[in-house]
Amino acid sequence: MIGVILAGGRSSRMGEDKAMLRIGGRTLLERTREVLVDAGAGEVVVSGAAHGGIADRWTDKGPIGGIASVAAALDDGELLIVPVDMPHVDAPTLMRLRDERRMRATRWAGHPLPMRLTLDAMTRATLAELVELDGRACSVSALQARIGVATLSLGGTTPLALSNCNTPDEWREANP
């Protein structure tokens, strides 16, 4: 299982690099890496050249551009994908995604990310098609709909664990 941290965005709504925001004495990038390892990732890669990761080959394509860029650099296998802007995601939340493999992707109800993704020929072909599209047609939800997704019930999951912070207000709300 390879952990993937989506950290290639411009953070324009936040006004500063979200990956470098600090919580509990660590940056979000450091914290997310640790959570992925705790959830069973044997390796962790970062989508986004600004943090020494894999550069986006498809700019302005959002998370799909980052996922497609990482996919182009990796062998087939299982990915556990987490955006860097989820300050309270935890290992048990990710482990439930990791363990559900009925479909090529697994997500939480109402939350396209984080997700477990099977990287194989079909997923690669679908990503190649999506990066050529715009708007909602080029989205994580569109990827999941095309390749098949298992959706887990939120029962027993802390809602805060799945909250992401894109603006200063959302950051203050999630981190009182």
Task: Describe, in plain words, how this protein is organized in 3D.
By secondary structure, this protein is an alpha/beta fold. The protein has one domain: Spore Coat Polysaccharide Biosynthesis Protein SpsA, Chain A, CATH 3.90.550. 32% of the residues lie in helices and 22% in strands. It contains 6 helices and 8 strands, in the order βββαβαβαββααβα. The chain has helices at residues 28-38, 62-73, 91-99, 121-130, 140-147, 168-174, and strands at 2-6, 22-23, 26-27, 43-47, 77-83, 105-108, 111-119, 149-152. The strands form 2 sheets. A 6-stranded mixed sheet has the order 4-1-5-7-6-8, sandwiched between helices. Strands 2-3 form a two-stranded antiparallel sheet. Helix 2 packs across helix 4 (121-130) and helix 4 (121-130) packs across helix 5 (140-147). The protein starts with a strand and ends with a helix. The model has no long low-confidence stretch (mean pLDDT 89).
